[in-house]
Structures are given as structure tokens and as C-alpha cells.
Design goal:
The protein has 24 helices and 37 strands. The protein is α+β, with helices and mostly antiparallel strands. The protein has a seven-stranded mixed beta sheet. The chain has a six-stranded antiparallel β-barrel with strand order 10-11-14-13-12-15. A four-stranded antiparallel beta sheet has the order 18-19-20-21, covered by helices on one side.
């Protein structure tokens, strides 16, 4: 009997499909009945062959072998998922499987996952249909199976998926190799990753950082008056009604640049009577539009402090596992025009009593009706806005509940009428000077009622004390405030996502942002991973909620500007390519034309880098606030590669063993003679290592391993045992049970492990393991109980964060232990989240 093979993206989705479609027999990683075989990938199973696998045939990292422009892109199974690929290949080749159904996530990446599996398996002769899911409820699954899409209909999306993958490969591999070859030509190995989307995103951050560093504060003054009337007191701020912007970008009507003028205004007005005029006008504010993924990530970052990656993870879980939200990886903020009945049904199923009352009001008042702000087919592509499904959310943890409620409130509020305000502008004229006071009173909260004071903010506090017609006001006090202009704010994830969506432009207006999103950097589904990738590569760092470009990131963008490669520095240009991929998805652009443009861009990157002879790059790289080690002058100015003393010939190189020194690190090293230990150095073989740096007699930086911080040399260079008598031990050593453990510059060590004669212990453990600093209290716990607490934020060699215990093993070695997976709950019991899968074949922590 002929059967259709259904391939989902994840095992949990395959199980949901089997449950929705009827009775199936569970077999080894697949389900089967008389009509269907259902299995799944586990994310990406097949990849384009990366650089490391091409070394044998393409040569090493050098300009001589660039550019690499394969006519056909070879593929291979991803090693950790190879067994799953073999299972799918076996199912694909079964004679009774005569039709294939792609049930991977409904988007570009889901299409790529499926197509690469088929391509590498060599399956070309079986018909394909596409399951397009917007919701994971059983009814939605059955409805989607009743409306499967044809392979011809999906071919434009497949073309865009292949083109995105291949263009990232071409630019990423060739650009990274070219930049690495350039930066490494003076010695060492300086890996310099670049990407078609991530590097222009970094350029946005670096441009802002450059403005902040170049900013010079200007002092100014503001004059405030406190005015008394019969009903009470109010405050006004002086302004110049004749102000014109002119050429001063810092100019504002209320800013006074001369203290003398501010003093004159204050003296003239203090204690005087003011004439009051008012203008009142009604204003309305419409509800915000429904959420797409980027807007949800932006607002969750502002409201809850969630990272973009975390918001996507939670939203995906609410869609896939809990089935309470529709598909989250969407760029639309509207619903289909035939979705009105579904919306009404969903609105009637809101379960939270505090929100259900607003949902009932919207339904009973007839507010849930066709409107272009909500229902618009022209603004719905493959997916519509994120809304609740009507399924009750059970067993949601705190953060999932927060995000779910956030979406439900937006879903209800969008149908409520606009909020109505009475806006008052009061001008108080005193001796020819004018003071402005603004107030806003909520007349009808409209959609804000759904949010309560959440949406009001400070509006409820802006009501002004009333003034009767013709009443004057007495100036009871005058205050002069000394203020300074402020530099541009650093990006947060919220504002960077907005800038990415607007191709480098921060756009607050919802309608304009929607228009610009066609040419944004990346897609809603990829922007979080782009940000995380930049952080993992040390191009930018999180500082609280702020994102800060690192010295390495600033150096890369300065180099690209110097070489003249707009393809990797212009967000607008990269946004144009993303728009072309969307045109391809719509069948309006040929794949070969787009790829020809990308190939030409790749050649341009390589040729310009290869032909760039300058060792310095134009730009202002600041200066170090520290004295020159050679002549003592406070005159160390930066260029692309160095800090140079302008009073003598002293030079300090910024890049040491492939690691770019930040100004703060260089300042500490030159001032104190030592800095570190620091992570991120690379040997000539490309291997990462950590070390401290010290300044030698010539003022040059050199590594200070100090036998891993556990020994010294005397004046003749003879090794002597380290003197522990001046140090306080961290804890007793439970490996030898005779010594004490001390904290050294690079390691925690037992004193008996570094004894000059007859070392009887082997306990040595790095203070930093896989980029994660180990605090002393965890060493105490390791010795007392045999293992530490579960420690987050280790970074694997592939740049992936993971959590693990550190465990004391036989002989004093320290290794990783991973949290066990949660036991499978009994039938009918609440499900719990699985522990993350441990990295394969983890090495002992000491070796790592």
C-alpha cells in the first residue's frame, strides 16, 4: 500500500501531528499507519561543507586560494545529527513511500532543512506537498492537512532558502578568510569572522560608539518657575518663542547657553505677577498594532529585560509545546481578512478572569469587526500576526506566563477604541518672558483600560491645577538648572532590533517601520541569532541592558571602511539584498540573478582586501590617558594597529597573539605593568589560550605565564618555590588531605602540587574554564562535596553556551558533569521541561 512520508522539523511536532491525524503505531523514531509515515529532523541535519572540510582541496587560509566560488555547493550530514539523517534517508528510500509532505516549520529555514535532506539523500523522483501550519492546535493541524500546498507553489521559497544559505557561505567564508589573511600577515593568527548580515549589524553599533566617543558635552541652563494660583501651584519651564533650529543640532527652545542670561531672566521674573493663557485640545491615541516577532522582542526587552533570543525561545515554546500562541517567526502585524470569525471565537475563550472581562466587553460592544488596522490581506505574507489560539495555557512558568499575557493584552486591546485625552498647553508670561506648562488628562482610557496603569505611565500625574478665566499667577520661586548635553544613548536589544528592522535607521513610527521592514537586516527569525553571534565572537558585549562594541568590533569596522567594502559596512545595502530575497520568495526575482550579484560582491571583497597595502586605516582611534613608558609624555594616540607616542618613537601594538587589546586593558598594562589573565589569545596554530601580560624593560608587552601563576624566579633566573606564607588559603585540599588550596593569578592550586621537591598532590584548576570565571566559593564547595553548583555560561569551542557542574575526579582532575534529563512523567501527570542536551564527549575541565 502506498504511503506518504511526513517530515517535521522536531520530534515533538511529529508527535503532535500523529496525535491530531489519528491512530498510529509508535516505532523507532517514527510513527506509522496505513496512510502515513511520520518522522522528523532535529533542526538542521545537512549543511553546506564548511571551510575546515575544504582545506584538503582548497588550500589553507591565504589570499592565493581566494575567492572560493563553487559552481555546485557540496553538502554533508551534520556529525551530531547523522543518525537521524540516516533514518530519514531509509524512510525516503522505502518503496511504499510514494509521496513526501514537508511539515517543517512554515518559513524559509524550514524549507531549507527539508530540501537539503532530500538533496543529500539523492531523492528526486517523488512528488512533494507542503504542510503550512499557523497554529499547533489539533483543529489547525487537521485544517492545514486539508489544504496542502503544491511543490510548484513552494519553489520560489525554496529558491530563496538556497540563495540565503549559499550567499552567507560565499560571503562568510571568503570574507572571513580575506580579513583573517590581512590581519594575520604581521604574524600570529587573528581569526576575523565576517558575515553578510552580522557585520553590517555590527557597523550600526560601531557608528553609535564612535559618536559617543567623539562627543563633547556642552553646558547649558534651564529656568523653571513655580507659579501660585487660587487652586494651588504649578511649574513652568522658560522657552524662547522665537527659536529657530538653524545650524545648531544641540539647540532647543528651552536651552540657554549663557549663565548671565539665565540669571537675568531669573532676577526679572522672581516674585512678579504672570499673565496666564491656556489652550485646550482633544487628542486621541489608537491602540498599538498586533505583534510580529521583532516588535514582540523589542517590547519584551524594554518591559521585562528579555534578550531577543530568550523571547524567541519562550514564544516558540508557547507555540510548539503549549499550543497557546500562533506561529511566532512572523514579520506581519495583521490578520487575514477572512479571520474575523476565528478572532471572535478566540476572544470568547480568554481564560484569565482579569482579561476575559475586557474580551467580553469588546465582543458585546461590537468592537470586534473588520478594520484595515487589523484585517488586511495585503500585509499578510506567509504568516500573520502573533495572537493567542484560544487554548488554555496550563503549567506555564513565570516568564512564559508574562509573555503570553503580553500577547493576549495586545490581542484584546487592538479592538478597543482609541484612548481620549484633553491636552492643555498653559503659557505664563512674566515681564516679557514665557514659561510653558503641559498637562494631559485621560478622558476615556479606551484600549488603555486593558493595560491599567501599565499604559498610563505618568499621564495620570499630568493634570494641572485649574486656572479661572482672567486669573493671574504669582511667581513664588525661580530655579536655574545647570545641565549638559548628553551623548547618544547606546543601543539596547530593543533599539538595535528596531535599527535592524529599519536597515540602520531607528524608526519609532509604526507605519513607517512596517514599510522599511521589507529592507531590514535579516528576518524576524534570524535577528536574535545575529546578535548572539556577534557577542559570541567578541565583537560586542552586553553591559546590563546596553550593547557595547568591543575593541575587536571597532577595529574590524574601521578596517572595512579603510579598505572600502560597503557590502560589509552598509546596513542599507544589505537591506536591499534581504528585500531581493523576499522578491524571490514572491516569484518576482530569478535565483541566478541574485547569486550572480552575490558572487560579484564576493570577488570585490577579496580583491579589495588583497590589494589594500596600508598597515594603518584612516580614522580617529582616540588616545590613552596614561604616560608613555619611554619618555613619560601623556601623548599616546591610536591608529588602526597601534598606539604611538607623539613625543618619541614608542609604539604599542594593539593586537597580541590574535587578540585586540581594549583601551582599558592597554591603559592598565602600561600604567601598572601587568594585566590579566585575559582570554582569547590564539597560537600560530589557531588554538585559543589565556594568559596574563606584563610590560618588559623596553615597554613591550609579553606573556606572563609564571608557570601558570604558581612559581617565581630569583634574580639569577633560577626557579624557586612560591612563598604561600603571605597568602590566605581558599580551603583545605581534599585530594592529598595534607595541603591547602590557594588562588593564584591563573589557577587554583594545592601547595603540595607545586612544591619544589617531592610534589605529592596533582590538584590544579584554572580560574577561568571555557570563558567562565570560577569563583572561590565554588572551589570550596568542590573540595567539601566533590562538585560545584550547576554553573551557567560556559562557552564551548563552537561558541555555544552551556551549563554544567564541575566534579572532582580521581587523581585531582576536574571534569564536567551535566544535569540529568528530567524523568518521563507518568501518563496524565504534568510535563516538565527537559534539561539541555550536554555537549558531546566533554573533556576534563582542567584540559579544557
Amino acid at each position: 500500500m502506498s504511503k506518504a512520508l511526513i517530515i517535521a522539523e522536531k520530534p515533538s511536532v511529529a508527535a503532535d501531528l500523529a496525535k491530531a491525524l489519528g491512530r498510529f503505531d509508535k516505532k523507532d523514531n517514527f510513527f506509522e499507519n496505513d496512510q502515513y509515515v511520520i518522522s522528523s529532523a532535529v533542526g538542521h541535519l545537512v549543511e553546506l561543507i564548511p571551510p575546515s572540510a575544504m582545506e584538503k582541496t582548497r588550500g589553507k587560509w591565504s589570499f592565493a586560494n581566494l575567492p572560493i566560488l563553487p559552481e555546485e555547493f557540496e553538502t554533508r550530514p551534520i556529525e551530531k545529527n547523522e543518525d537521524r539523517f540516516k533514518l530519514l534517508k531509509r524512510l525516503l528510500k522505502r518503496p511504499d513511500v510514494t509521496e513526501l509532505i514537508n511539515a517543517c516549520d512554515a518559513g524559509r529555514e524550514g524549507e531549507l532543512i527539508f530540501r537539503l535532506v532530500l538533496k543529500h539523500a539523492g531523492v528526486t523522483n517523488k512528488p512533494i506537498r507542503r504542510l503550512w501550519l499557523q497554529s499547533m492546535t489539533a483543529d489547525s493541524i487537521r485544517d492545514a492537512f486539508a489544504h496542502l500546498r503544491s511543490d510548484v507553489e513552494m519553489q520560489p521559497l525554496a529558491n530563496a532558502a538556497y540563495s540565503r544559505s549559499e550567499s552567507d557561505w560565499l560571503v562568510g567564508i571568503n570574507g572571513t578568510r580575506a580579513m583573517t589573511a590581512f590581519n594575520s600577515k604581521l604574524g600570529g593568527f587573528q581569526l576575523t569572522p565576517v558575515g553578510r548580515v552580522q557585520t553590517p549589524t555590527l557597523a550600526i553599533l560601531c557608528e553609535r560608539e564612535g559618536k559617543i566617543r567623539a562627543f563633547k558635552a556642552r553646558p547649558f541652563f534651564e529656568v523653571y518657575g513655580d507659579f501660585g494660583v487660587k487652586a494651588g501651584e504649578y511649574r513652568g519651564r522658560w522657552f524662547d518663542p522665537a527659536f529657530k533650529k538653524a545650524d545648531d543640532e544641540d539647540g532647543r527652545p528651552e536651552r540657554i547657553w549663557d549663565r548671565t542670561k539665565a540669571d537675568e531672566i531669573a532676577a526679572r521674573c522672581d516674585g512678579q505677577i504672570g499673565e496666564v493663557t491656556e489652550e485646550k485640545s482633544p487628542k486621541s491615541q489608537a491602540s498599538p498594532l498586533l505583534f510580529d516577532l521583532t516588535t514582540l522582542q523589542r517590547e519584551a526587552n524594554s518591559r521585562f529585560g528579555f534578550s531577543a533570543k530568550r523571547t524567541l525561545q519562550i514564544a516558540q515554546s508557547l507555540y510548539e509545546k503549549h499550543k497557546v500562541l500562533t506561529y511566532p517567526r512572523t514579520d506581519s502585524r495583521h490578520l487575514p481578512e477572512d479571520y474575523l470569525s476565528t478572532v471572535k471565537a478566540t476572544m470568547s475563550k480568554i481564560h484569565d478572569p482579569s482579561l476575559a472581562v475586557h474580551a467580553r466587553k469588546a465582543l458585546e460592544s461590537g468592537w470586534v469587526k473588520p478594520t484595515r488596522r487589523v484585517f488586511d490581506n495585503t500585509k499578510v505574507s506567509d504568516h500573520f500576526a502573533i495572537i493567542p489560539t484560544g487554548t488554555e495555557g496550563k503549567n506555564l512558568d513565570e516568564v512564559a506566563q508574562k509573555l503570553y499575557d503580553f500577547v493576549v493584552k495586545r490581542f484584546i486591546a487592538v479592538f478597543f477604541p482609541s484612548a481620549q485625552f484633553e491636552v492643555t498647553t498653559r503659557i505664563t508670561k512674566v515681564k516679557g518672558e514665557q514659561f510653558r506648562t503641559d498637562g494631559r488628562i485621560i478622558v476615556d482610557p479606551g484600549w488603555m483600560a486593558v493595560y491599567g496603569r501599565e499604559a498610563e505611565g505618568e499621564d495620570s500625574d499630568k493634570a494641572l491645577v485649574p486656572v479661572t478665566a482672567g486669573e493671574d499667577a504669582k511667581t513664588r520661586a525661580i530655579e536655574i538648572k545647570a545641565v549638559e548635553t548628553k551623548p547618544p544613548a547606546r543601543y539596547t536589544e530593543s533599539t538595535l532590533l528596531s535599527a535592524m528592522e529599519g536597515a540602520g535607521k531607528l524608526i519609532d513610527d509604526e507605519e513607517l517601520r512596517a514599510a522599511m521592514s521589507e529592507k531590514g537586516l535579516g528576518t524576524p527569525a534570524t535577528r536574535a541569532s545575529i546578535i548572539e553571534g556577534l557577542i559570541a565572537q567578541d565583537y560586542m558585549a552586553r553591559n546590563g541592558r546596553e550593547l557595547v562594541a568591543t575593541a575587536k568590533g571597532m577595529a574590524l569596522i574601521a578596517l572595512l571602511h579603510g579598505i572600502g567594502i560597503p557590502a560589509l559596512t552598509s546596513p542599507e545595502l544589505t537591506g536591499e539584498w534581504e528585500a531581493k530575497l523576499k522578491q524571490m520568495e514572491a516569484g518576482k526575482l530569478k535565483r541566478k540573478d541574485f547569486m550572480a550579484e552575490i558572487r560579484e560582491m564576493t570577488r570585490d571583497i577579496v580583491e579589495k582586501t588583497k590589494n589594500f597595502e596600508g598597515d594603518t586605516v584612516e580614522g580617529d582611534f582616540g588616545e590613552l590617558e596614561v604616560k608613555c613608558p619611554k619618555c613619560g609624555a601623556l601623548n599616546l594616540k591610536g591608529d588602526y594597529r597601534t598606539w604611538r607616542c607623539q613625543s618619541c618613537d614608542y609604539v604599542f601594538w594593539k593586537t597580541i597573539a590574535g587578540r585586540v587589546m581594549s583601551p582599558e586593558e592597554a591603559t592598565q598594562l602600561i600604567r601598572d605593568g601587568r594585566v590579566g589573565p585575559l582570554e582569547g589569545f590564539r597560537s600560530k596554530m589557531g588554538r585559543a589560550f589565556a594568559a596574563a601580560l606584563k610590560l618588559n624593560a623596553e615597554g613591550k608587552a609579553e606573556f606572563d605565564f609564571g608557570d601558570n601563576g604558581t612559581s617565581n624566579k630569583d634574580e639569577n633566573g633560577v626557579e624557586i618555590a612560591f612563598d604561600f606564607s603571605t597568602l590566605t588559603p581558599v580551603t583545605d585540599c581534599k585530594v592529598c588531605n595534607k595541603g591547602r588550596v590557594f588562588s593564584m593569578p591563573m589557577q587554583y592550586v594545592c601547595e603540595n602540587a607545586v612544591a619544589k621537591t617531592d610534589p605529592i598532590c596533582k590538584f590544579k584548576m584554572g580560574r577561568t574554564i571555557l570563558q567562565r570565571e570560577i569563583p572561590a566559593e565554588q572551589v570550596v564547595k568542590l573540595m567539601q562535596t566533590g562538585k560545584t553548583d550547576l554553573l551557567p555560561r560556559f562557552i564551548s569551542k563552537k561558541g555555544r553556551p552551556f551549563s554544567a557542574f564541575l566534579k572532582l575526579e580521581a587523581g585531582g582532575k576536574v571534569g564536567f558533569e551535566f544535569a540529568p534529563r528530567a524523568a518521563k512523567p507518568a501518563k496524565g501527570a504534568p510535563k516538565t521541561a527537559k534539561a539541555p542536551k550536554a555537549p558531546k564527549a566533554a573533556k576534563p575541565a582542567e584540559a579544557a
